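Example record

Each entry pairs one chain with its bound ligand, pyridoxine-5'-phosphate.
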Amino acid sequence: MAQLGVNIDHVATIRQARQTYEPDPVAAAALATLGGADVITIHLREDRRHIQDRDLQILRQTVPFGLNLELACEPEILDIACHARPDQATLVPERREEVTTEGGLDVVGEVERVRAAIAQLSAAQISVSLFIDPDLAQVEMAAESGAGAVELHTGAYALASGQAQEAELERLAAAGRRCVELGMTLHAGHGLNYHNVIPVARIPQMCELNIGHSIVARAVFTGLKEAVADMKRLIDNS
Ligand code: PXP
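C-alpha cells for the complex follow.
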C-alpha cells in the first residue's frame, strides 16, 4: 500500500497572504500526522512564496521521521537542505513565474547538475528522489544519475479525461515498472485529488503519493462551518 505524503505548502500560502503567523504549517504537520500522514512534504522555493526557512527548521525538530523537502538544484537551497537534513529530498524544477511546479525535472538534459546535487545530498545522508515526467528516457537517466527514488509527475494524468486519461495512466504504470526494474522506489504526485487518486494508488509498485492542494482545499470546507460557528458564538456571548 502506498504511503501518503501530505504537502502543507498551501497552509503557508494562506499565512503569507497576510505576512502573519497563522495558519502555522508546523501545526498543520501535527494535525496531518494525527490524520494518518506518513510523510510531511514541503517545498522551500527560492522565492519563499510559501514555506519559510523557519518552517523547515522547526519541522525538522517536530517531524521526527518522514520529512520530505522539495527543492531545486540551486546552491543556496541545497546548502540549507544539507544543514537541515530532512529524511528525503525531492529535486524539482523551479521557475519564478510559475504558479506551481509545472513539468518534471529534465534529468536527460541536466544530468551533471542533477548528479552533483544527488552527491551533495547523499553525503549529508539524505535520500534523494527526482520529480520527473513519466517518460522512459527520464526514468533511465534518473537511475544512471544515482537517485534512489523517482516521483512521477501525475499532472498530465490529472488534467486528462476519458481515453486520454487511460493513456496517461498507462504511461505512469509503464514508467513505474521500469523504475522498479532499475532498483528505484516509486513515488507519484501533483494534481491528485479525491476523484482521481485511486487508479494511481493501485499501480502495484507505488510506494508514496504526495498530495497537497486537494487536501488543503477540502480542509477549508470541512472546517469552515465550525470556524464560523465559533466566531458567531463569541460575538453572541459578548
Ligand atoms: N509533488 C511535487 C514534486 C510537487 O511540486 C507538488 C506541488 O507542490 C506536489 C507533489 C503536490 O501537488 P498538489 O498540490 O497538486 O497535490
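The domain at 3-236 is CATH 3.20.20.70 (TIM Barrel).
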